[in-house]
Design goal:
With 239 residues, this protein is an alpha+beta fold. 23% of the residues lie in helices and 33% in strands. It has six helices and nine strands; from the N terminus they run H-H-E-E-E-E-E-E-E-E-E-H-H-H-H. A four-stranded antiparallel beta sheet has the order 1-2-3-4. Strands 5-6-9 form a three-stranded antiparallel beta sheet. A two-stranded antiparallel sheet has the order 7-8. Helix 1 packs antiparallel against helix 2. This is Cell wall biosynthesis glycosyltransferase.
Length: 239
């Protein structure tokens, strides 16, 4: 059985996943195909996100496509210019990153009720972060102390992480299959980044399903029997 993020022959499964997302599918397909520039997609991850802003609903889609020696990132969102939603503009951004330029692939997990964890316990959420430029993203909030009456300025606290793109996939919102797909894509990208393979289809396969690479180096000369050397006869390789 092919991995769920394997793009298939001529990228048909990539096209199917974009159509399934249903967010301006033909536009997204054309943009992705244009960014591939003739390369064959190997593995992909398509993520549709929905955000609620008071009375407005905002959606945007991100497509990560591993194609031969590069990672393509396509992001599409829309913006409404009137209250009736008739005047809409789609904003598209694409980026192509060489696999060798990727600095890190970080996958964070969330488990519900960890005290009851078992090997088959489902993951409730994963966060996939990919960094290639070394950009440092800092998230700061005002620091507070334990005294509710304190009026002093305690500065700021926060987190800093090197990341260029972050995707959060929830089992509740996106489904368990989407969570497993994100994990699979992360493993595929890590393998391609650490040890690129020449066969694109092999990159998307699980480790145990790969065809072993041929051994390199000089072939050892067959060892002859001691008795054959002694008598001068060539009796073939030793068994």
């Amino acid at each position: 059985m092919a991995p769920m993020t394997y793009s298939g022959e001529r990228g048909q499964r990539l096209v199917d996943d974009i159509n399934k997302a249903g967010f301006y599918p033909q536009l997204v397909i054309d943009v992705v195909q244009d960014s591939l520039d003739g390369r064959s997609p190997v593995s992909h991850l398509v993520q549709l996100e929905t955000h609620l802003d008071r009375t407005e609903v905002h959606r945007h889609i991100t497509a990560l496509v591993l194609a031969e020696d590069v990672l393509h990132v396509t992001h599409v969102d829309d913006e409404e210019f009137d209250e009736n939603g008739r005047d809409v503009v789609a904003r598209v951004s694409t980026e192509t990153v060489g696999i060798s330029q990727i600095r890190s692939v970080t996958l964070s997990y969330s488990y519900y009720q960890p005290a009851n964890y078992r090997p088959d316990s489902p993951i409730s959420e994963v966060t996939l972060a990919i960094a290639w430029t070394g950009t440092l993203h800092v998230d700061l909030t005002p620091a507070v102390c334990d005294d509710p009456q304190c009026q002093a300025d305690h500065g700021y606290t926060g987190t800093a992480a090197r990341e260029d793109i972050v995707l959060r996939i929830s089992a509740e919102a996106d489904g368990p299959a989407a969570v497993e797909g994100a994990r699979e894509f992360a493993r595929t990208l890590r393998r391609a980044n650490l040890a690129p393979l020449t066969n694109g289809a092999q990159i998307a396969q699980p480790v145990h399903a790969r065809t072993p690479a041929p051994r390199r180096g000089p072939t050892a000369t067959p060892r002859t029997r001691f008795t054959d050397r002694f008598t001068g006869r060539d009796g073939g390789a030793a068994r």
